[in-house]
Amino acid sequence: MSESPIRDFLVGVFVLMGLAAIAYMSVALGGASYRGPGGLQLIVTFDQVGGLKPRSRVVVGGVKVGQISEISLDENLRARVVIDVDERLELPTDTSAAILTSGVLGNQYIELEPGGEEAILKSGDEIEFTQSALILEQMISRLVQNLGVDSPE
Amino acid sequence: MNAVPVQRLGRFIVRTVLNLGRFSVFSLQVVRISRYLPRRTRRLMDELYHIGWLSLPIVCVSGLFVGMMLGLQGYNTLIRFGAADSLGAVVGLSLIRELGPVLTALLVTGRAGSAIAAEISSMVATQQLDGLRMMSIDPLDLVIAPKSLAMIISMPLLSALFIVLGLLGSYIVGVIFLGLDGGSYIASLESAIVFQNDVLVSLIKALVFGVLVALIATYRGYTAEPHSAGVSRATTSTVVTASVATLIVDYIITALWGV
Question: What is the mean pLDDT of chain A?
Fold first, then answer.
């Protein structure tokens, strides 16, 4: 078969389009380009993480600044969560962390609330002030107990 | 005692094993001959045009409409639970993990796999491959290897385009037609998709399907009986075998990855 510049150009266009689609899936959707370990690694310990999962969001004031890289149990049988946040972030040492839910049945994420200290957190530091995930069933059972106690005999 | 059924079973088993063995030998020969492919870039470009570029319209249109269908179905199901904002996650996960690679493989089998088998088997029927051999040109080198490699390269690219067009289709239905919030569609899509678990598996699947379809189509064409019925038989069995193999292998990959 003979040389055909138009055909070669179309093949080139096809390959470029395909690669662009793969790149879009990997980078924009899959988050493959995320800085990964090397950002600011912080350790947060919770009594209860609920439905938190690796790669869940970490936000400050609602703005995404990082993600959860690892969830495990520490020696005191509490949940130890390693979060990976933007290294340019200057978080005071008295920053607190809370597990919140987006919407009623939405995904859970960690919200960091900066405190007022001068010193800032460095990689490997632990966030001391934490608020665990709210478990709907526990809240309901507590509510039912309280109602039961308060009701007149 | 009637031994005919047992005999038939035996013949079936022997034929199956023989076919598998021939297929494996054929695959190995194609892999070995592929080291001469750098000399065949001209042929490879032609095949990429036929298999890749010409499959583009059918793959894009199918992707768009599969996405629109998923958007509509997903919306109607999710709205009952008040979770229509998760439409992006539902559509994205089903497209990337399963539908994208599998439907692309089925479409490409029908569009290009059948054409490969028909072309090669009619070359067998008209003794063109024997002619090549007489000129001491290996048909595996000139005909089979470029077609196989073009199929293997095209499949992941087509699958990725299918997925992106599908996401666009469900965005059109969900956000523009049904009035969902565009931001939450994209946000639920982005938070649901993980590169290692979803995108990588999707690409691996597409690549494996590309290898499967390429080898089955060229094998069926290459071993076709040299007459016109052989051509039609090779084409039919290519589409049937490749489609079924795609679905079976898809389950195996999904199960192995431990989703």
Answer: 81
Higher-confidence position of A53 and B91: B91
- Rounded to two decimals, the pTM is 0.78
Average pLDDT over residues B57-62: 94
Q: Which of B49, B59, B79, B167 is best to mutate for the A interface (most A CBs within 10 A)? A: B49
The answer to whether the beta carbons of residues B100 and B107 sit under 8 Å apart is no
Q: Pull the structure tokens for residue B130.
A: 């024997």
Calculate the alpha carbon distances from B225 to B206, B210, B228, B255 in Å. Answer: 30, 25, 8, 37
What b/e string do you get for B180-195 counting C-beta neighbours within 10 Å, with b at 16 or more?
beeebbbbbbbbbbbb
Contact A21 B43 (CB under 8 A): no
Q: What is the complex's ipTM, to 2 decimals?
A: 0.82
Least CB–CB distance from A19: residue in B83, B157, B200 = B157
Residue type, B83: A
Q: Quick one: tokens of B87? A: 């439409």
pLDDT band at B104 (very low <50, low <70, confident <90, very high): very high
Q: Give A73's strand partners.
A: A79
